[in-house]
Amino acid sequence: MRVAYFLDEFPPFLRGGLGTYALEMAPLLAAAGCALTVYAFRMGDAAVEEEWAGAHVRRLPLPEPAPLLPVILPSDVAAWPPDAAHFFADYLVYNIVSAGDLLARGEKADLAVAHDWLAAPAAMVTAATLGIPFVFHVHSTEGGRSGDGGSPTVRALEGRALEEAAAVITVSHAMEDELLALGVPREKVHVVHNGVDTAKYDPVRVPPAAVRAFRERLGVGSDPLVLFVGRLTRVKGADTLLRAFAMVLREVPAAHLLVLGVGEMDGDLRRLAEKIGGGRVHLEFSFIPEEERILRYAAADVCVFPSTYEPFGIVCTEAMAMGKPVVVGARGTSGMREQVVPAGEGICGFHINPHDPADIATYLALVLRDPALRDVMGRNGRERAVALFSWERAARETAAVYEAAVMRGKKP
User: Fold this and answer.
1) Structural domains in the chain (count)
2) Is the N or C terminus of the chain more exposed, i.e. has fewer CB atoms within 10 Å?
3) How far is it, in rounded angstroms, from Cα 394 to Cα 172?
């Protein structure tokens, strides 16, 4: 099965969950019989063309769209900050150039695939031109990400892609519910949970001496350590977490919090950390190598992800695979609610109201004060990640949706 595969994040360009998804899934899809021609957004000096883990990858240099911005930008996008408006134009050009390149090269494809709105136009026009089906992966929606409806233009692009798609793949039943509420037919939507490499994310791989050395370097020693990993945007809830952590310190004065991520909220978080004081909040505003991130999971006593909108939450799966209790936002669209068992024999964490610092603090303090509970949760979380959330399972289920779309698209 030949697949024209359009997505913006692809190794070596990784900025979030979609990058992790591509890193893990592309080789497995190739191994499952999908001949991928990947068109990715080019960043820096990444190779224009290469064979990567069984996929043929093209990252095309893009012309500068600046002279056209006054005439090509929709009115709502034109009102964005200049960098954001230029970002939109860059991606519009990426879609046009990528689809044009594939067609000019005479590449044959059985299926066009896109991930989110950033790559949907390229897949839609490719599918229409070649007369092949289009499968749309939805990792989030504009309305959900923004919290206030977001851009009408982006919502329109998403809506058009949802209409045109022969099949829609999304990452959780929570996201399925969101898509159904938008009017997408139930029979078109397929839920394929993301995964984690449980051989890589395995606490036994991290030497205890390395954990001790990291904790000493951080200034934590043997004190309890709470870890947050994620983009520093409003929906991830790091600001609410810092307000909650001030309350945690009343119950567990020795606790520390490590915040790891990058994003536009770093200034706000610095100010909140300064108010808490005492050297108990550690801010690591950087994108670090994966092995360094694994070390931080290993060093933590509990991981917390108070997202107000989280269609899946790969960081939660990673923390569970590392044998860590997890405290997660569970309101609205929350794929983490499907990952984390909050009670009973298989308990591996707690569900919290991500809008309420007191609720976050209550459950963090509960976990920090109870080492036996932490151990039980960690073991259960690791077992659940191994049993249910493998990338191999995700690749099999995804390839099956692709194959069914191609078969339906064939003329009798």
Assistant:
1) 2
2) C
3) 12
Distance CA 132, CA 121 (A): 15
Sign of torsion, CA 68 73 77 79? positive
Q: Give the contacts of 125 (CB within 8 A, at least 6 positions apart).
A: 95, 99
Number of CB atoms found within 10 A of residue 208's CB: 9
256, 302 Cβ separation under 8 angstroms:
no
By the 8 A CB rule, do 356 and 364 touch? no
CATH code for position 61: 3.40.50.2000
Q: Would you state the structure tokens that stand for residue 122, as one six-digit string?
A: 């390229």
Q: In this predicted structure, what is the pLDDT of residue 18?
A: 86
- Given a contact cutoff of 8 angstroms between Cβ atoms, the answer to whether 232 and 285 are in contact is yes
Q: Over the stretch 60-119, which tens digit does the pLDDT of each residue have? A: 999 999 999 999 999 999 999 999 999 999 999 999 999 999 999 998 999 999 999 999
Radius of gyration of the chain (CA): 22
Helix (H, G, I), strand (E, B) or coil at 198: coil
d(CA 300, CA 92): 41
Closest CA to 384 of 332, 346, 410: 346
Structural domain harbouring 297:
203-388
Per-residue pLDDT tens digits for 360-401: 999 999 999 999 999 999 999 999 999 999 999 999 999 999
Residues 6+ apart with CB under 8 A from 290: 200
